[in-house]
Amino acid sequence: MTIKIGQKITGYEVVKEEPKRVENNVVHMHEKLERPEVLVGSTYKIKTPLTEHALYVTINDIVLNPDTPHEKRRPFEIFINSKNMDHFQWVVALTRVISAVFRKGGDVTFLVEELHSVFDPRGGYFKKGKYTPSLVADLGDVIERHMKLIGLIQTEEPDAARQQLIAEKRAELKKRAAATETAAADACDFPADAHLCIKCSTKAVIKLDGCMTCLNCGDSKCG
């Protein structure tokens, strides 16, 4: 459509696109953020063959920008409880340090790698087929699992080809396990519920007369 200008042009300007509105009320995590009266929390159980009593890890999250497109959960504090008082001193210190890092804000996912790198000089243990080098590393597994739950760490899923390969290998392993199950049961001289001995690294520790005793090397907490 042609537009005829009947008056003299005295000036002009280029029309610019209006800038997008940026919300300035977004709340970010920082160390000065006050603790609300109510926090959302999850509790995880850690049971190892090295200790008689389990540890219960509670991680409380703060919800930032609730009911908005910017809503997110961030870990705010951590507590560890157990009937075992052998590790009470370092457990309290560790929970306070980790909670302080949580409240500092920023990227706190580095804690997982740092805790995973802690090795027990007495040796680690196997848990669901995975080797855990120490109790502290087990705590790192719990924090990693929680960060994946709240979306702080993204879970990388294998592609279709790799998933098919894994399924084939698992099926092959299952056939081999079924063929050797009887022989393996006959070769084991210790109870199936025996714990790992920290002295000889053999799953042969059972409770005898109220005392944990190794059936392989004879090590006993009662002397």
What is this entry, summarized?
The chain has four helices and eight strands; from the N terminus they run E-E-E-H-H-E-E-H-H-E-E-E. With 223 residues, the chain is an alpha+beta fold. It has a three-stranded antiparallel sheet with strand order 1-2-3.
Describe this structure in words.
With 223 residues, the chain is α+β, with helices and mostly antiparallel strands. Helix content is 30%, strand content 21%. The strands form 3 sheets. A 3-stranded antiparallel β-sheet has the order 1-2-3. A 3-stranded antiparallel β-sheet has the order 6-7-8, with no helix packed on it. The protein has a two-stranded antiparallel ribbon with strand order 4-5. Helix 2 runs antiparallel to helix 3. The model has no long low-confidence stretch (mean pLDDT 81).
The oligomerization state is single chain
Strands side by side in the biggest sheet: 1-2-3
Q: What is the average per-residue confidence, as pLDDT, rounded to a whole number?
A: 81
The coarse overall form would be elongated
Span between termini: 102 Å
What portion of residues belong to β-strands?
15-25%
Order of SSEs: EEEHHEEHHEEE
Give me the Rg, rounded: 28 Å
- Which percent bin holds the helix content? 25-40%
SS content category: alpha+beta
Low-confidence stretches: none
Overall number of strands: 8
Number of helices: 4
Major sheet: size, sense and barrel closure? 3 strands, antiparallel
